[in-house]
């Protein structure tokens, strides 16, 4: 068998004009890593900080004096690296004998190792060396001790359900959050007396999250008491944080009258409506500009949030050919005229139904007017 193997190697060498020994392709041989320099064994990291951990080790040697590739291998504290929880190339696409790992990535590895959020645990690490094949596993390993961050891996989607939610406990009807960033979700919804929780899918077995003391926690539910109220709930999975802002009033602001001619009524699903409202451009002068004001409560503080156009000055009035993006609503300042919308000409002197749509189903937060 050895003679057959040797002949095959010699044939391959002849075809590819590679200089080979009779028994092996020596240019693929590398030594194992014999020493790990940093982090020191049992080094402690608080992963709630915005920082990185630098892993460094002794260089391995290649038999042909060429380059060596490195993989850093992580396992549970009592693991033997036979089934590691994570493997990643070193810096420089695997060519450097260092690995710079942001705490956020290290926290993800801790999660894969089964270490819960806000918990002290340990990870074991070592280094594999190779030239792409003939991987050499180091005989040495170190352990790091970590305090995991408050955050969690960010799901692809998120829903609210429960007796205190708008849709009750029927999972298929659960109201969806809108994803507003890489790790953030937002929802406008009404809470009533009862319990609620957040789920990551309506099918199969979802991950479950809830709010406890303003922090995001896993595998539980939140109890809501008191009167039914509309809230904006923002969840940041990376920080494990939540923000709940009560929405007490939504008003239409018409600068030409210096008034709020009408309010909107919350109708569910992140949607507010106003029905049969008169619109007239004839104030102190003819003007069709407008925006919206939300009255919000954070804790014991009441304040205003303005929503207006993405454009500081919209120029001419919109028409049926105007893109839907014209009506998109974004946070704006409280000035009378900047970032205002404009009505279509045909609305002047008419009664309208109006809708503000801050649901997850909307492409962007938007609004509309329908002439009666």
Describe the structure.
- The chain has 372 residues and is mainly β.
- The chain folds into 3 domains: 31-147, Immunoglobulins (Immunoglobulin-like), CATH 2.60.40.10; 159-239; 247-371.
- Helix content is 7%, strand content 43%.
- It has 2 helices and 28 strands.
- The chain has helices at residues 2-16, 103-112, and strands at residues 36-38, 43-46, 52-57, 69-76, 86-89, 98-102, 120-130, 136-137, 142-147, 159-161, 175-176, 178-179, 184-191, 194-199, 208-212, 215-218, 222-224, 229-236, 241-254, 259-263, 265-268, 271-279, 289-298, 301-308, 330-332, 341-342, 350-357, 366-371.
- Strands 12, 13, 18, 19, 20, 23, 24, 25 and 26 form a 9-stranded antiparallel sheet that branches. Strands 2, 4, 5, 7, 8 and 9 form a 6-stranded mixed sheet that branches. Strands 10, 11, 14, 15, 16 and 17 form a 6-stranded antiparallel sheet that branches.
């Amino acid at each position: 068998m050895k003679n057959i193997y040797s002949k095959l190697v010699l044939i391959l060498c002849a075809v590819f004009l590679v200089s080979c020994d009779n028994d092996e392709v020596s240019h693929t041989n590398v030594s194992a890593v014999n020493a790990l320099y940093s982090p020191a064994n049992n080094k402690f990291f608080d992963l709630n900080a915005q920082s990185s951990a630098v892993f460094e080790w002794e260089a391995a040697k290649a038999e042909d004096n060429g380059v060596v590739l490195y993989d850093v291998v992580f396992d549970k504290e009592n693991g033997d690296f036979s089934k590691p929880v994570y493997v990643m190339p070193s810096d420089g696409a695997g060519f450097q004998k260092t690995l710079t790992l942001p705490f956020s990535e290290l926290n993800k590895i801790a999660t894969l190792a089964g270490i819960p959020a806000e918990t002290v645990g340990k990870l074991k690490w070592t280094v594999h060396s190779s030239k792409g094949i003939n991987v050499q596993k180091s005989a040495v390993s170190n352990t790091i001790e970590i305090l995991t961050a408050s955050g969690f891996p960010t799901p692809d989607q998120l829903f609210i359900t429960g007796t205190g939610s708008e849709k009750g406990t029927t999972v298929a009807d659960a109201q969806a959050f809108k994803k507003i960033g890489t790790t953030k979700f937002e929802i406008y919804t009404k809470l009533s007396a009862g319990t609620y929780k957040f789920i990551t899918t309506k099918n199969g077995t979802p991950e479950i999250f809830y709010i406890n003391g303003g922090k995001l926690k896993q595998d539980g539910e939140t109890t809501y008491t008191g009167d039914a109220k509309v809230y904006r709930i923002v969840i940041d999975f990376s920080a494990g944080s939540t923000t709940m802002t009560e929405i007490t009033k939504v008003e239409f602001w018409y600068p030409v009258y210096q008034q709020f001619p009408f309010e909107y009524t919350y109708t569910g699903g992140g949607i507010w409506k106003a029905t049969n409202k008169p619109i007239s451009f004839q104030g102190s002068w003819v003007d069709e500009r407008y925006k919206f004001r939300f009255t919000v409560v954070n804790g014991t503080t009441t304040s205003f949030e303005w929503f207006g156009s993405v454009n500081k000055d919209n120029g001419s009035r919109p028409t049926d050919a105007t893109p839907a993006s014209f009506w998109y609503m974004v946070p704006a300042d409280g000035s009378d005229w900047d970032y205002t919308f404009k009505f279509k000409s045909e609305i002047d002197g008419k009664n309208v139904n109006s809708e503000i749509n801050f649901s997850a189903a909307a492409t962007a937060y938007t609004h509309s007017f329908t002439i009666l």
